[in-house]
């Protein structure tokens, strides 16, 4: 006798006012007041990361109920993508409208974990807006894609504080999504979806018809 499926219950969740109230709606830039727009979001069990139009990353720790702020040095520009990762250390990758990509290695109170905030920069390969970021599960690889179709691979050595980046793929249309697992990078663009095998550096298209 077939079991009866339990009914689906819809729930309405209220806005996270404790989070939103910790982010200013306006900031002062010289003599003018600038409205702050929220432009990017990612979450995991430990953090809620929110990117903004003023180049500020707001990182809310869900266990400590604390909000911290991180920014890029120099020109303030809109954050377009954020990607969290919890592995041995907590990492967050951030991409901006001009193509800057940075990785923040967060401080942890746990024994044996990172005790000093560190930042790694993906140097000058992207020249346009970052549209996708993807981590390897161990935090040693970061892939970034932009709206001109460039995909950059960054190898991170957190112990040595080194980040080496190189262009691995260039598509004729904007990158809209990246996902990485077991030496295979899944890439979606405005025109097609493909599998990029990182060891062989070969490409296999998913499906035969281009997107319209």
From TrEMBL:
Protein name: TCPR2 protein
Alphabetized SUPFAM superfamilies for the sequence: WD40 repeat-like
Pfam families the record matches: WD40
Top-rank taxon, per record: Eukaryota
Transmembrane segments: none
Gene Ontology BP terms: protein exit from endoplasmic reticulum
Species this chain originates from: Anhinga rufa (African darter)
GO cellular component: cytoplasm
């Amino acid at each position: 006798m077939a079991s009866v499926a339990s009914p689906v219950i819809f729930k309405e969740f209220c806005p996270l006012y404790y989070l939103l109230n910790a982010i200013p709606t306006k900031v002062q830039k010289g003599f003018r007041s600038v409205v702050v727009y929220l432009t990017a979001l990612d979450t995991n069990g430990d953090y809620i990361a929110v990117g903004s139009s003023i180049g500020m990353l707001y990182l809310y720790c869900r266990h400590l109920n604390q909000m911290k702020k991180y920014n890029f040095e120099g020109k303030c520009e809109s954050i377009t993508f954020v990607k969290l990762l919890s592995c041995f250390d907590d990492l967050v990758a951030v991409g901006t409208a001009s193509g800057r990509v940075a990785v923040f290695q967060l401080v942890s109170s746990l024994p044996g974990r990172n005790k000093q905030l560190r930042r790694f920069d993906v140097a000058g390969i992207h020249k346009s807006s970052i549209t996708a970021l993807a981590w390897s599960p161990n935090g040693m690889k970061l892939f970034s894609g932009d709206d001109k179709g460039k995909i950059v691979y960054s190898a991170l050595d957190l112990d040595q504080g080194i980040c080496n980046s190189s262009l691995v793929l260039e598509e004729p249309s904007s990158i809209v999504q990246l996902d990485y697992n077991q030496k295979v990078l899944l890439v979606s663009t405005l025109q097609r979806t493909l599998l990029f095998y990182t060891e062989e550096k070969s490409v296999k298209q998913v499906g035969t018809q281009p997107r319209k």
